[in-house]
From TrEMBL:
It is found in: Membrane. The chain crosses the membrane at residues 431-451, 507-529, 541-559, 571-596, 602-623, 635-659. Pfam families: Yip1. The keyword Aminoacyl-tRNA synthetase does not apply. It comes from the Bacteria. GO terms for cellular component: membrane. PROSITE patterns: TPR (PS50005). This is Yip1 domain-containing protein. It comes from Natronobacillus azotifigens. Coiled coil: none annotated.
Length: 680
């Protein structure tokens, strides 16, 4: 939703056009087009499609509140002219050809042109599917299936329809949550429901189900999956559907088993239509006027269009109801409220992208490299082009270049594969040298231990230094190593033997922050959880130390009111020292993550799990030993600490909202005063 609002704000500079007595109004448009980078952010790109024609009538025949559009193999335009209760047929030049179904149709909302040149019409009000020849002869009708499997109370209110090459009809019925209805066109047999949308259950609903009585649950509104809003079928029989609403798969590409094979997310809850292009590219229309173009695998290529504000600007829509493509890859966009069709033509840039994409999808990566490079020359932010080039370099076994291209594309899987090959090449060339370095280091380490055991150079130096200088801080800092072997004794020494100090603990706290920053920004590329090259150190400092202070203070206050024996000093030192495993192992993991691929990712995950579990156990022991609690009391203290943290965060949030509202109120009052004074 935020993306859509952002697009609405930045779409500007369209050319105003005026209606005339001509059937077809020629118009050139200029508006912004966007693509998506590897992180899912919209970035501006060259215009991909421009409006070449605007069709408002076929001769003297106007269409009213039309809901669907299809383009025949002969180039004719078929419109579900809902307001006039008919199918209107014309050509691209605006010439009227014929009307279909004026004696039969009452509210046609969907139509489909089958492979055998039949017109299937979904009539919502008549609750039937009508089948016509291209000349308008009524051939068949399909009403509500009488099969017991359909369901006695299930709705049959056809809104959209599609047909595959096996003459199976796919129907979207308004208010029927069971899925897409399948009927065989030859026998009229109900085949079953196909690919229903998944039910979305919120955490609050699950909580209510867990605690409510049967009577209370019976009063809750039943949660049913939403019904798809439109569908289409490609030449291979794959079904495409779009749905509206939140927490739903908005775009689906369904195989014969009804499984979604497309992993695409779109921040638009108002999708109305889906169309398949000549490259198996997927066009999706939004009621708000945006048109999205995806590759066959679900990568966003372009998004353009937008919602018209009443100034009748070319390329924008009041309510975009449907889209269709013809044999020349022109895109026809039907505006229900403005009763017009805008015809989009590809620009040279989009043609270049499609040429590259065709070669890429055919597996001819080497041939696709040159056009992809031209795309990048025109727009260096077009990340999908880097992905294509990366694949080309990978096929050519130029893994260094593939690595750089995949990183530019933010394509982690490809980066991992390329790095695997780069690492293998390096290991083959340097394995002997690496072995000699490792052996040499081990030998040197052994010699140093033998010399120290005989001569005790380090021991004598540390003793003299300790006698001459006060090295308590150094000893307190080094004392953290004891917690690994003897945590109970370490916590006892902190509390009763004055081991450790606030200063040494603060030193380790800053080390903890440094490791946190290193992990966040300097881990291996495929393991980064922030955008590559993005740094927010100010926010990191504020959040890290605020959270740490909140946890320490909350735990201390809870322990104090529950007869805990630990002082703030003890809890502060003990809590930080409990991160000893993190200090010892985490830097090595951060370093080694730069040399791992997804094949070894499980090792990194396992090591991190062990570290965090180890730290959690040490913190539990610390709370128990320093405050002299039982195990049960310790669990209670931890729960109360977490609860206090939650309450504190909610309180801070409420105060923040009140302050913001107060500031907005003061600003509004001042602005109003200035306005009145200026107009006085």
């Amino acid at each position: 939703m935020k993306r859509i609002n952002k697009l609405l704000l930045i779409i500007t500079a369209s050319i105003i056009f005026f209606g005339s007595n001509l059937n077809v109004i020629e118009a050139n448009t200029a508006y912004r087009t966007f693509t998506e980078d590897g992180y899912g952010r919209y970035v501006e790109t060259q215009t991909a499609y421009t409006v070449t024609d605007t069709i408002v009538r076929f001769d003297d025949e106007l269409f009213l509140q039309a809901e669907d559009i299809k383009i025949g193999s002969d180039g004719n335009i078929y419109i579900a002219d809902t307001g006039n209760r008919r199918i209107l047929v014309g050509d691209r030049d605006g010439n009227f050809i014929r009307t279909i179904g004026e004696d039969d149709l009452t509210k046609p909302t969907g139509l489909f042109l089958s492979h055998d040149d039949k017109i299937y019409v979904a009539d919502e009000l008549a609750m039937r599917i009508f089948v016509y020849s291209l000349e308008g002869e009524l051939l068949q009708e399909f009403g509500k299936p009488d099969s017991i499997l359909f369901g006695e109370n299930a709705n049959f209110i056809p809104e959209k329809v599609a047909v595959d090459r096996r003459d199976n009809i796919y129907i979207i019925s308004r208010g029927n949550p069971n899925g897409i209805i399948q009927i065989n066109a030859n026998t009229g047999q109900f085949l079953g429901y196909f690919a229903p949308n998944a039910t979305s259950v919120t955490l609050m609903t699950r909580f209510r189900r867990a605690i409510f009585t049967e009577e209370q649950l019976s009063r809750m509104i039943d949660i049913v999956p939403s019904t798809a809003t439109n569908l289409n079928i490609d030449e291979r029989g794959l079904v495409y559907s779009v749905s509206q609403g939140e927490n739903v798969e908005a775009i689906r590409k369904l195989n014969v088993a009804g499984q979604n094979i497309l992993d695409t997310r779109v921040a638009d809850n108002f999708l109305t239509s889906v169309e398949i292009g000549s490259l198996d590219n997927i066009f999706v229309a939004s009621e708000r006027g945006f048109i999205y173009e995806y590759t066959s695998e679900g990568n966003l290529l372009f998004v353009f269009g937008g919602q018209d504000d009443g100034r009748q600007r070319v390329g924008l829509f009041r309510r975009l109801a449907a889209i269709a493509t013809d044999g020349q890859d022109r895109l026809y966009a039907l505006d229900r409220d403005r009763n017009q069709i805008q015809v989009f033509q590809k620009t040279e840039f989009a043609e270049l992208v499609h040429q590259s994409l065709e070669l890429y999808q055919d597996g001819d990566y080497e041939a696709s490299k040159e056009p992809w490079e031209e795309v990048i020359r025109l727009n260096s932010l077009f990340d999908f082009a880097y992905l294509g080039i990366g694949e080309a370099y990978f096929r050519e076994e130029d893994y260094d270049e593939a690595l750089a291209s995949f990183r530019q594309a933010k394509y982690r899987d490809g980066y991992s594969d390329a790095f695997w090959e780069v690492r293998n090449v390096w290991m083959r060339e340097n394995i002997i040298s690496v072995l000699f370095i490792i052996v040499g280091f081990l030998v040197l380490l052994k010699v140093v231990k033998i010399v120290e055991r005989k001569k005790a150079y380090w021991k004598r130096f540390s003793s003299k230094a300790n006698e001459k200088y006060n090295l308590k801080l150094i000893h307190d800092i080094a004392f953290i190593k004891n917690i690994i072997k003897h945590p109970l004794n370490t916590y006892y020494s902190i509390q009763y033997e004055n081991k450790g100090s606030m200063l040494s603990a603060s030193f380790w706290l800053f080390i903890l922050f440094a490791i946190f920053i290193a992990e966040k920004y300097f881990s291996g590329f495929i393991f980064l959880y922030v955008r590559d090259g993005q740094y927010t150190l100010g926010t990191d400092i504020a959040m890290f130390f605020s959270v740490f202070a909140l946890v320490i203070v909350s735990n201390y206050l809870i322990c104090t009111i529950n007869e805990g024996e630990g002082k703030f000093r003890h809890i502060y030192i003990g809590f930080i020292y409990s991160f000893a495993p993190y200090f010892i192992v985490k830097p090595f993991l951060v370093f080694i993550s730069n040399f791992l691929t997804y094949n070894e990712a499980y090792l990194l995950q396992l090591a991190n799990t062990i570290i965090y579990a180890w730290v959690a156990i040490l913190i539990f022991i610390m709370i128990k030993e320093i405050n002299d609690y039982t195990v049960r009391e310790t669990f209670k203290i931890i729960f109360l600490t977490l609860f206090m943290i939650l309450i504190t965060v909610l309180f801070i949030f409420i105060v923040y909202v009140l302050i913001v509202q107060m500031i907005q109120f003061v600003v509004a009052v001042v602005n109003e005063g200035v306005y009145r004074i200026g107009n006085g």
